[in-house]
Write a structure and sequence with these properties.
By secondary structure, the chain is an alpha+beta fold. The protein contains six helices and four strands; from the N terminus they run H-H-E-E-E-H-H-E-H-H. Strand 2 and strand 3 form a beta hairpin. Helix 3 crosses helix 4 and helix 5 crosses helix 6.
């Protein structure tokens, strides 16, 4: 250790109250534990991709899904009784190759590619496309529409 850390005369001096009545020196040792939790920030990629879902400003693909008997939001309806869903070719190629195949045959380079879909209800297509963008579907919705969603995915 250190020499001259504390002088013996200081320890023996009763006015300093270092020794108890029996002349015993009590030493208390404590250790400070360092936090083992490491802060790792959450990767924002998933949120960024989900923000791109159905974003007509950045999309290069527009799926026009024929409306059936189901109600859809008015701002999504377009002329001809169909609902528009905007998507991105890159995301489709990496996450939904079957949808990407529908896109690869149409459209001009650099422009919006329009794809007609007639064999799927718009709300089912929305769930399918949301899943492609990393979203999750509520369990009760899955129970109610599992067969339709699986059929649409095929």
């Amino acid at each position: 250790g250190w020499h001259n850390f504390i002088k013996r005369s200081f320890i023996l001096d009763a006015s300093n109250n270092i020794l108890d009545i029996n002349g015993t020196l009590a030493i208390v040792v404590s250790m400070k534990e360092e936090s083992t939790a490491v802060f790792v920030p959450q990767n924002p990629l998933l949120n960024t991709i989900q923000e791109m879902f159905n974003d007509d400003k950045t999309a290069d693909v527009c799926f026009e899904v024929a409306n059936g008997a189901d109600e859809v939001e008015k701002d999504e309806q377009i002329a001809g009784g169909s609902t528009s869903f905007h998507a991105h070719t890159l995301i489709l190629k990496k996450c939904a190759p079957m949808l990407a195949d529908l896109v690869s045959n149409g459209g001009e380079k650099g422009g919006m590619i329009s794809v007609q879909v007639s064999d799927v209800q718009p709300d089912i297509f929305r769930h399918l496309l949301w899943y492609v963008y990393g979203g999750k579907t509520a369990e009760d919705t899955l129970k109610a529409h599992a067969k339709d969603i699986i059929d649409a995915a095929d």
